[in-house]
Amino acid sequence: MRTTRQIEISGVITGNDDKWIYKFFDMQAFCPADLQLRDGEDVEIVINSCGGSVYAASEIYTRLKQHTGKTTGVISSHALSAATLIAMGVQHLRIAPTADFMVHNISAGGRYGDYHVHAKTADVLKQANDTLANAYALKTRRSKADILELMDKESWLTPAQALELGFVDEILFADDQTLPLVAAQAAMLPMEVIAGMQSKKLAIELDLLALERR
User: Which residues are catalytic?
Assistant: First the structure.
């Protein structure tokens, strides 16, 4: 009898190099390296995340799509922003009747510079939105124009709306009449904090290296 291994994706979606910083602050986070898949095994991905890095989410999404075993997913509380991209990577996605689902335009944090830089950033963000919409369109079978409109409006969807639009395949406990609850979107750590902690880590490593050479 085949067994299904459960993998929980909770907290901020972050890159491999930044995961330790969230751990330092005792914050829940999930990075691509946390997704340990065995060839051919069946996995259930339980998602409870407000999102985070689109690049990290894209890597997780791709690995789930490429996985040779059966993949199912459950949105237990909320899938917001980049977490929804991960949700699109499973073959069959269910959502709790009390959960919520939110898609929006991609944002850029920590960018400095003149209007030339920000104009370029706007072009990059539009292209990134178009790329992200591919995953949603593939799952929902809806046009990219419809998906981009939903993203542009920052769409917070109830389980029934997510099912109707094709983002999910099933609502758990379908007979349950519990109203969906909306959770606030949690913010990632500021880029300045990330950069500062990376600098401190490098300084410590250099000090240790200097001590070893004495």
Answer: 81, 104
